[in-house]
Structures are given as structure tokens and as C-alpha cells.
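To whoever is covering the structure queue this week,

Two jobs came back overnight. Logging them here so there's a record in the thread.

Job A:
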Amino acid sequence: MTTVQDLLTAAIRSIGVVAAEETPSTSELTDALYAANDILSSWSPQILPVLPLTRELFGLTGVAQYSFGPGGTWNSARPVKIEAIAIISSNGARQPVRPATIEEYVMRPDTIATGLFAEVWYCDGGFPMMNVFLQPIPTGGNAEVASYKPLTQFGLLGDPLSLAPGYANALRWALAIEMAPEFGRPVSQEMMTRAVDSKMSITGLNQAILGRPNTVEPAAVPPPVPAQQAG
């Protein structure tokens, strides 16, 4: 079983802090864990290419506003971005709902109108709970919500590593580049190339799954940082 510690150890070994047969210290692994979670946090707002699309069904109760997040009316992880919403009526009919800007939403004349389906939805982007508004107000049925959820943070070093194909390799090299300056190690061109290529591989896969053109350009690879000269 591959663990979080195995991934962190591979990243630390990639920058030459420990040899292949050695184990990083507890403090080195702890630093790597914090850095890995920072990378996951920074990747999540990028949406594409790194986040998969999640589809969920939430019951509608005849109100105009639904809180979306842990403990909310729509009790699920708060998404980074809502991609699409459709209303499914109690008899199974389905109709997509068009996203609206705040300017369009507040200009709607009848805020208490009801109907079988909503015409528009608006999200306020609130944190830690966002709110989704539907107009007209559906009287029942379900909301089918497609959204991008943030990448799950790592917990304990001994936790099983659960990542989709390609993510572990991309995270390993991103983490190596993130940690190299902290340990006084150079960032080689090979490391940068591996980090770019491995992240672009999951970019291409996710965009192919979603049926979108690949608009991500390869990142410029800077020249390697020379090691510090002994004084």
C-alpha cells in the first residue's frame, strides 16, 4: 500500500536531500506535508486542468436560496466553481438552467414567481458557504449540479495515497521544485521539465474527458538554478 509518506519521501529524494536507501527525518516529512497541501490548495482554483467534474443531485424545497457547503441546505463540499445546473421535475422531466450575472439577477422584476423549472441561477461565491439562487422558484423536484470540487488535502503521513492516475507523479515533481530552495538545493532543468510534462498529462486527460480543446500552453522552463558555491 502506497502512503502519503511514500510520496513525500520520493519528492525529498528527488532533490537529493536523502539517498535512495535513507528515510527523511520527521521534521523533513512534516515540512513536505505542509508544502504538498499548499500545492493542492494552489491547484484547486485553476479548475481545469486539475479538477474533475462532479455531478450531484439535491432536493428542492420551494425556496429561492440554497446554501451550498458542509452543513448547508445542499450538504456537500463547497465547490470551487459551479459549471452547470439543471432542474429535474418530480415526473422526471429535465431542463437546463442558464447562469445569470448579479446585474441580471437583481433586475428580475418578480422575485417570488414560482414554476416547475427555473430559468436562471446565480451564485454569490460566498465562503465558507456559497449561496445559489433560482428564479423562478422551482416548487419541487431536484437540482442536478455539475461542479468542480477542491482537491482533498492530505491528513496523516501514514494515510493511504488515493490519487487519480498521473496526479502522484505531477505532485511529486511540483513538490520537489517547491521544497528545493528551502533545503538549499538547485532546481534543475530536468526537474522543471518533469514537473511541466507530468502536470500537462493530467491536463490533457481531463480536457479530453470533458470534451474541451486543449488550451493550456506549456510553461516556460527557466534555466537551472546553480548550486551555491563554497566560500
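Job B:
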Amino acid sequence: MLLGFFLFTAAYLAGAFGGLLASRFIVLKAIGSVHTWRHIFVWEGVITVAVGVLLLFCYPSDPAHTRILNEEERALALSRLSSGQLDGSSESRDEVIGFKEACKIIAKPNVLAACLFFTFNNVTVQGLNSFLP
């Protein structure tokens, strides 16, 4: 549910705050060859890299050292990591998936529904961003 909320609202927030940031960045004084619209790309890139570096220190490196999992979840995550089975299945991760198996996975109803929902979400978000003032 949180992932769906994030995917649906992130694009709206990015459009809203991106426009505000862009309007401020475009009026900045020139810094070398960076002027007008180039400020938007430079400063938004700097912000993105800074947040990425910050998150390297915020996120735990493994489930054994995180505070967001309780003991039961931590034990489950560690057992899955040690066995190499991250999805809880009994299949080994060393085997190669062929074309037919990939088609079976893609044809699953939950995968198709997720693709459909992501498509509707993107059409809505991009349509609103493009056609509303």
C-alpha cells in the first residue's frame, strides 16, 4: 500500500516542487557557462546526488543492523539471505529462466494488473502535468 501511495503521489509532488524549483533556478545569475535553463539541470542534479549520498548513510547495510524490522522479520530476512531465496520460494537462484518461463511469469494476473495500474498511473500523472496549467 505504501508503495502504491508513493508511486501515485511522488509524480504529483515532483511536478509541483519541480516547477517551483525550476522557476527559481532559471533566474539565477550565470556561473561560468551555466546560465538560464542550465541551472535547472545542474542544481536538480546536485540535489539528487546529495540526497543519494545522504541515503547511503541512512539506510542499513544489512537486516541485522536495522531498527525498522522486529526480531521475527529480522530472522526471516537473514534466513532468506543466507539461503539465497529472497522470494520465499523453494527454487534455486542459480538456474537460468528461459523464454517460456518468462512468458508464464509475465502472464500472471497480478503482474498484468500491476502493469495496467502503473500504466494508468503514468497516463494520469503525465497527462495532468502536460495539459493542466
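Note for Job B: The longest helix spans residues 2-25.

Please reply-all if you pick these up so we don't duplicate work.
Q.
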